[in-house]
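Support reply, case 0932

Customer input (verbatim):
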Amino acid sequence: MNTDFHKRIYVAGHSGLVGSAILRTLKRRGYTNIVTRSHAELELTDQEQVREFFASEEIDEVYLAAARVGGIYANNTFPAEFIHDNLAVQTNVIHEAWRNNVQSLLFLGSSCIYPRMAPQPIKEAYLMESALEPTNEPYAMAKLAGIKLCESYNRQYGTDYRSVIPTNLYGSGDNYHPKNSHVIPALLRRFHEARIEGSASVSIWGTGNPRREFLHVDDMADACIHLMELDSELYRAHTQPMSSHVNIGTGSDITIGEVAGLIAKVVGYEGTIEYDSSQPDGTPRKWLNTECMQELGWKPTIGLEEGLIETYFSYCRDLLENTQRAQSRALDVQSQHRRQSFLFGQTRSAAHNQTYSSDLRH
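Our regenerated output:
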C-alpha cells in the first residue's frame, strides 16, 4: 500500500462536489500536505498559469476532479463550453504534471462515456463499442480523451496515471441550480420549494422510466483514495494498458420515478408527481459493473435513503447559512424569523420530523 501521509497532493477542483469530498477524505485519513487553488487563484484552462503552478509547487500526486459539469439542459445549451473547457483543463494538468515529474495522478471520468445502448451492467471493456448518448456527447468525448491521455502518458513515459469512472454522484456540496444541476440536486430543490410553497404537484422531465445508479460522493472519494493507495503492480494486474479505467458504483439501480418518490418522502412533500414526456429521458439505463473495484478490495457503505437524508440536511444547512449572512446585513429580527420559516417550512408534519430527525448526522 502507498500511504505516505506527508507527500504533497494537489486536489484540482477542490471546491466542487467531487473535489471537496476527496479533500475531506484525504484529511480524515491523515494526509497533511494537501495543495488547493481556487478558480480565481489558478485558471486551469490557461496553460501558462498551470505551467507556472506545477513548476513552483513540487507536487507528488494529483487528483484531477476539476471539470465543467451539468445535467441534460446544460449539456444541450453549452456543448462548446463543455468540450472545450474540459479538454483544456485535462490537457494542461496532465501534461504539466508529467513535465514536472509527477508520477502519480488520478483522473475522474464519467459514466456518460459509455455507449448509450451498452449491455447492463456496464463493464469497463464496453468503452467505445457503439454510439454515445447525444445529449451529452461533447462532455463525454472530452472525458474519453482524458482517459486516453492518461493511458498514453503511461505507455510512452512510464507514469502511473489512473482513471476512475464513477456512476451518478450526489451529496454535500452539490450544485442546486434549477436548470444546470444533475438529477438528485435538481429534484431535492424542486420538492423542497414545492413543499414550502404548498404546490399541489411537481413536474419532472421525461417519463420517469430510465434507470440510474446513484453513489454518495463520500463513498466515491473513499474509493478513489483506496485506489491510489494500491501498489502499481496490483492495479496493473486488474487493468490493461489501453483499458486502464475502473468503475465505481453501488451495484444496483433505480428508476427516476422511484428516486423522485424517495426524495419527496425525505423532503416531506405530499403532493403529486407528474412527468413531462415531451422532454428527453436521456440514456434508458446506466448501471456499472463494479466487479473490478470489489476485487481490489472496496465496496460502498452509504445506502441511498441514508445518503439522501444527509444530503437534504446539508442543503438546508447551506440555505440557513446563506440566509443568515443576508440577515446580518439587512433584516430585522421579525423579518429573519419569517424568512427562516419560509426556507425550512415549519408546516412539515410532526410524523415526518419524528421519522427523520434522528437520522441526520451533524
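We compared this against your earlier run and they match. Two observations from our side: The chain has a mean pLDDT of 90. The radius of gyration is 21 Å. Please reopen the case if you see a mismatch on your end.
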